[in-house]
Each structure stands twice: as structure tokens, then as C-alpha cells.
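Bench log. Compound arrived from synthesis this morning; before running ITC I wanted a structural hypothesis for how 4-fluoro-L-phenylalanine sits in the protein. Inputs:
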Amino acid sequence: MAIQRGGFSSRLGFILAAAGSAVGLGNIWKFPFEVGKGGGAAFVVMYLLFCFILCFPVMVAEIAIGRNTQRNAVGAFKALGYKGWSGIGYLGLASGVLILSFYNVVAAWAFGYFIEIVTGHFDIGQRFGEFTKDWITVGAYSILFMVGTAFVVSRGISGGIEKAAKLLMPTLFVMIICLILYAVTLPNAMEGLKFYLVPDFSEITPAVIYSALGQAFFSLSLGMGALITYGSYVSKNDNIVTSAAQITLIDVSVAVLAGFMIFPLVFSQGIETDGGAGLIFVTLPGVFQSLGDVLGIVIGGLFFLLLSFAAFTSTISLLEVPTAYLVDEHKVKRSKATWVVAMVIFIVGIPSMLSNGASEALSQFIMLPGAVKSLDFMSFVGLIANDTFLPLGGFLISVFVAYVWRKHRFNQELQIGAESLKGSWLQSYVNIAMSYICPVLLGLIFLVTVMDKFFGIKLLEKIIGS
Ligand code: PFF
């Protein structure tokens, strides 16, 4: 029985929705602090290389699997006739549920900060710990964020996801440009830009390479079937390779632009750049305060609204993965599937919410071998889902495409809507990447993470010998 799945009404709609999935907290919150930790521009160079060399081919593969089968992450492998490989899809579902469970909490912080700043509470930066500990307030914002996400997803592809992306993505872009134009006029802005743009390659250590790789993969929403799912709603007239290139370009641009906005802001106050995860939540409110009441509210409010919008288009795609699975595989009505999944994920996220101060046990959840301090529950879930499941998923997807589904069928799908691709260097590159570059690098990153984080064995240092 054929089911009514819906689809994107235009190529632009798909590109904006997929770019919306990619552009998120990873670009605006995580990217700048990874840059700060990784020594500035040298990290940026590594990140860009990984996005185009490694991640872009995986994105092409995911979209191709989705469009070929017009199925969700699990059903796609079954539809291709490889039921055993649908394990990749289940792994993706697990990743999606886990990532959204804590991603929604950070999104709730962002939205909470927006409210605090526009009501003039600039001291929120100093109260970051208190704020995240207050589980009732964070819980209320989390519910709000999840309800908004579910509302959009329940309305389907063209009427919900595409519409939201078409509205939010251009707005996000305008906001980021306005913020940059303002930030570069601040005192010391040039110092910030210098740190950001002049690479010091001596800063590139194995750990920096490794985090740039992980960051690129997470930032492009790969390895969990989000793009298989979105790809399943793409028209047969669309050129997959060009679309993937455009999505990668938008994502990378927003990450790079986020740096142009954040480093001048941070340096204007002479603050250290390796502020870690707190760079945005602890440091920036103070910067906004120094702009004076009115300007602080406008610029600070705009910033946290931007962060919330970016997170929102990502939570939408995270929720769509398990929703599409229930709709396709279990014939559940979309609206029912959406609300049930959203509720389950919210509940799964409660321990993460409590692990930032509210519960002592969850805030110091686990001491991993070789670690210097214990990990809170939320970071532990992040470690499992982002750092372990995603590279594993990406590794399996590339092995599947190259060695099971095989090159000729993969290329055939890519050539639909893109006749000129046949025999081109781009197609050859994507093929080579699928067969060698992606399995090797992604397999390696998975192994290194598992050995390092779960067994305390520093494999990367051993391989590179430093
Ligand atoms: N790409 C998002 C970000 O950078 O914030 C996070 C993400 C969304 C990862 C959707 C995976 C995913 F399926």
C-alpha cells in the first residue's frame, strides 16, 4: 500500500531545510569555542578541509540513498533489499533520539538567554551555573522548544519543515550579517580577527585534527540518517551532488561567519578565547552589557534569537528522523507519531537537564578511564551519540554504498537530474571518497574515540607518535 509521504515543493526548499539541519548550535556555539581551544585559524583550515574532502561525499551518499528509496533511515536499507543493513538506520534513530534529548536542553538555554537579555538581565552570564541548575525554568523552556519543534514537524514536509526553513534561514542570515557589521566596529575587533584568520600551524596537534574532524561531521548532520530522511523527499529532477555542495557551503559559511561575529565581540573586552563551552553563555552577556542598555538589549537579543533559530531548524530535522520511521514503517499518522516521539525524547532528556547542577549524581555521572574529572550525564550522552555513533554511522554508510550497494547503482542515482555528472571528476572523486577516504577516516575516528574515552588508550598519539 502506497502511503502519502509528501515532499519538498522545490529544490530551494530542500536546500534550505537541509542547511537548516546543518546550521545549528554546532556552528554558532560549538565552532567558535573549538576554534578557541584549537588555536584559531589553524583549526578553521582543518575544519574546512574535512567538510569538503570527507563530509561532502557522505552527504551525497545519504541523500542518494534517501531519494532512491523514498524511505526513512531504516526503511531505506530494507527497500534496497539489504534488510541486515537496516541496523545503520536503527543506529541513526538511536543517535537522533539521544542527540535531540540534550540538544533541546541547550536550545532551551539559548532561548532562555534571549528572554533574560531582552528583559535587561545582563548578569545572566555570571549566573550561568545557577540558571542551568534551575531545572524548573529550563524545563519550561525545553517544553516550549520541543512543542514548537513538534508543531512544525507534525505539519509535514512542504507545509511544515520547508515553510519554517524558508522563513528562518534567510532571517538567520540577515541577523548574522547585521551582528558582524556591528561587531567589527568595536575596539580591538582587529585583534579578534587576527586570532581567527592568521593560522599558526604549530598549533595543529593530533587532538586538534581529531576534534576538527568530529566537528565537521556533527556540523553537517551526518551519520544518523537525517539526510537520508530529508533526501527521501527530494524530487527526481534535482541534482544531488550540486545540492550537497550548496548545503555544505552554506553550513561552512555560517560557521565561518559566526567566528567573524564572535571573536571581535570577545576581544573587544579583552577576554581569553579558550573560554570553552561557556564562551557564549558566560562571556557574551557581559560584552552585551558593556554596550549600554538599549544597544545591549538589541544586539544581545538578536544574538540569542539567532542562536535559538539556528537550533530550531536542527531540532526539526532531529525529530523528523524517528517520526518518518514511524510513519513509513509502522503506518502511524504523522501528527500522532510526532507528538509521541517528542514526548518520549523530552522524557529521555530529563536526566540531561538535571545534570547541570540540579542533581549531584547526574552532574558527576561517570569517571571514565584516564579522565581527570568526572563527566556529567549530558556530556556522557554527547560522547556516545555525537562522538561515537555518528562516525560509526558514517563509516557504515560509506562501506554500504561502496561495497554493498555498489558504485554503479550509486552513480546511476546521482546521474538522475544530473546527466553531465557522468564521467566527471566530481563523480570520480565521490566514488574514491566512498571506497577509501571515508571508511578509513571515519573508522579511525570511531576507533580512536572508543579507545581513548572508554579505555583510556591514546591511540592517535600512538599512531602519529607524538
Ligand atoms: N548539525 C547540527 C549542528 O551543527 O548544530 C546538529 C545536528 C542536527 C546533528 C541534526 C545531527 C543531526 F541529524
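What the model suggests: The first helix runs from residue 11 to 22. The mean pLDDT is 94.
ITC booked for Thursday regardless.
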